[in-house]
Amino acid sequence: MQAHLLKEVPRQGLAQFERNGDYTVEKVSWSEAEQAILINATQRFRPVPKAVWEFHIGGYAVLEKYLKSRKGRKLSLVEIDHVAEVADALAFTIDQMPKIDEAYKRAFGT
Questions:
Q1: 25 and 71 in contact (C-beta within 8 Å)?
Q2: Strand, coil or helix: what is 94?
Q3: Cys staple from 60: which of 20, 65, 72, 80, with CB 3.0 to 4.6 Å?
Q4: By CB neighbour count within 10 A (0-12 exposed, 13-18 middle, 19+ buried), where does 53 fall?
């Protein structure tokens, strides 16, 4: 729960921002070859594994939704740090899901 609240996120170093540009979100896409989220022609967050990029909550791909909602404007340093923190939290969640499923099966026998 603490990871989802971004209070205690085990840091994995995901989604580091490459800052050569003006921070403007022009077009959000994910590059499999680079394992990166591209926000314009020169700037990206990487590494971002495919499972983290595709992770959905409430019907939305979390990182894509966050960045697309900022299209046409410059990201602040707080927003840039937030993307990395959320990517780490999602990766942690993905790692924990099989353990949670197994604990549920043991507890409820399904």
A1: yes
A2: helix
A3: 65
A4: buried
